[in-house]
Amino acid sequence: MTEAPAQLSDLIGSAIRDLARHSNQDVTRWLHQVDRLRGCTDPIRLTGESTTLNSTTGELLHTFTTRDQPHGQLLIRCGNRRASRCPACAETYRQDTFHLIRAGLLGGDKGVPEIVRTHPRVLATLTAPSFGPVHRGPDKDGTLNLCHPRRTGPACFTRHQKGDPTIGQPLDPDTYDHTGHILWNAHAAVLWHRFTIYLRQHLAAATGLTRKEFAHTARLSFAKVAEYQARGIVHFHAVIRLDGREGDTLTNPPAWATLDLLTTTITSAAEAVRLPAPETGQPLTWGAIDVRPIQTAGLDADALSEATVAGYIAKYATKAAETSGTLDRRVTRQDLAHLHTHGVTEHAARLIRTAWDLGDTDTHPDLAPLRLRRWAHMLGFRGHFSTKSRAYSTTLTALRRVRVEYREAQELQRLRHDPTSTLVLAHWKYAGQGFTPGESALAATVNEGGKHGR
After folding, report:
1. Which of 11, 81, 227, 297 could tie 438 with a disulfide, CB 3.0–4.6 Å?
2. Which run of H or E residues covers position 191?
3. Handedness of CA 76, 77, 80, 84 (dihedral sign)
4. Phi and psi torsions of 453, nearest 5°
5. Which InterPro entries does UniProt cross-reference here (predicted)?
6. Element of type H or E holding 47
7. Short-list 325, 304, 307, CA closest to 315
């Protein structure tokens, strides 16, 4: 290992001296805690204790208290889904999302019947309309096109490479509709909800059923994730599946439930959504709509595979607005004049300031329910990034519970306790979050050394 810079060495040395102040055992215990964090960079600090009893006899089997730990605290993983905050915990979230999406496509696992694999299924992408021309990147296949060579206003003759920071920035910031952009983001979750209502209505109308009859014979299941485009506006990727139903039980869909019907009605339902918007006077609508089939038995092999779709959805579950040049934390009034020092792009900074201005409840009282100042760093978006319908698949909570129960069983096995007759009583209190700078540098060194040692 190369010698660390003097400043970094001072930080690490300070952290070790602080841990060893009471006893050298504190250093060992702290390193053990860091190892159990599995790379988490922003752990939660807890104080408290736990007691393990034999639930039959009341015998005391084991006790644990944070008074014996370094700094009198226990470190646990933060569980943050944002890769910009904690890559290790975000990777766990991505894997959980992958398995959740995949279970709803393949079935036969995690409480989802295997028959769902034969049901009509598509990957739908719903985007926002244009609020002004922006610099364009390459196509999905990597093809480089001239950006905007034929515009009567500002033009751009560049073929922007992937990763070019210019992509997504307005050609003419002074004519870009920043207000419409913020309001669309703020209402994106409502637009999605309205779309799901319309989709059920359009499916019922296309088959000659009443809405009540449709609800008793078919069920629309979906899982979606929100992604920020380079221009700073969200769009949704959604797996949409059409099932049959008998009460609360999923069955094979009726004969009329075809892939073509699902594809057609998704497009018509999205095009029908019109949401009145304050301030601009223009209705909020969807922009481009893309619907692609997912492979089913007997379907064209050119359709998307289940693993491809699950990986695609999970990839975006750990990203947020910071991928479009904004911040990954809430904005304060003091931040507004210094956004550029935090790496915020000029376009994102203008959107943040627009959201802040629209969030003034004295000037814009009709927008008060949107709480735009609270969500200025998200450029107005205030919905959940990952959502699903109840019957689509399992839940993230269920996946996490299985993982916790597995680790608890491992720990009881290590202590040679019978899990069927064991009762754990615990009391924990939040004591803070994160490492000190010295601890952070030491933890990074330990984790890097662990990677090379594996």
Report:
1. 11
2. helix 188-206
3. positive
4. -85, -10
5. RepSA
6. strand 44-54
7. 307
Q: How many CA atoms lie within 13 A of 83 on its CB side?
A: 13
Average pLDDT over residues 130-149: 88
* Lookup result for tokens 């491809």: 308
Whole-number Å distance between alpha carbons of 232 and 116? 35
pLDDT digits 0-9 by tens, 302-331: 688 888 999 989 988 888 777 888 888 899
Separation between Cα atoms, residue 293 and residue 242, nearest integer Å: 12
Of all helices (H) and strands (E), which one includes residue 63? strand 60-65
Q: And the tokens for 304?
A: 């998307």
Please name which of 117, 115, 163, 118 lies closest in space to residue 138, comparing C-alpha atoms. Answer: 163
Q: Are 221 and 119 in contact (CB under 8 A)?
A: no
Distance separating alpha carbons of residues 235 and 341, to the nearest angstrom: 28
| Helix axes 87-106 and 396-414, enclosed angle (nearest 10) | 110
Question: 10 Å Cβ neighbour count for 86?
Answer: 23
This prediction's pTM: 0.85
Type and span of the H or E element at 211: helix 211-217
Confidence at residue 453, expressed as pLDDT on a 0 to 100 scale: 46
Torsion, CA 86, CA 87, CA 89, CA 90, rounded to 10: 110
> What whole-number distance in Å separates Cα of residue 42 and Cα of residue 87?
10
**Cα distance between residue 120 and residue 303, in whole Å:** 12
Tell which residue, 186, 171, 183, 165, has the closest CA to residue 230.
165
DSSP one-letter string for 325-370: TS-SS---GGGGGGGGGGT--HHHHHHHHHHHHHT-TTT-GGGGGG
At residue 386, φ and ψ (nearest 5 deg) are -135, 120
> At which residue do the structure tokens 């790496």 appear?
343
Strand 218-228 relative to strand 386-388: parallel, antiparallel, unpaired? Answer: antiparallel
Element (H, E) at 184: helix 178-186
User: Which tokens sit at 208?
Assistant: 């000659």
| DSSP 8-state secondary structure symbol assigned to residue 322 | G
Backbone angles phi, psi at 136, to 5 degrees: -105, 145
Residues contacting 367, CB < 8 A, separation 6+: 278, 279, 358, 359, 361
Task: Copy the structure tokens of residue 235.
Answer: 């769009």
Element at 48 (helix H, strand E) = strand 44-54
Query: Tokens 């330990």 label which residue?
Result: 446
**Predicted confidence (pLDDT) per residue in 56-110, tens digit:** 888 888 888 998 888 889 999 999 988 888 999 999 999 999 999 999 999 888 8
Residue 160, SS3 per DSSP: coil
Per DSSP, 289 falls in state E
d(CA 75, CA 86): 15
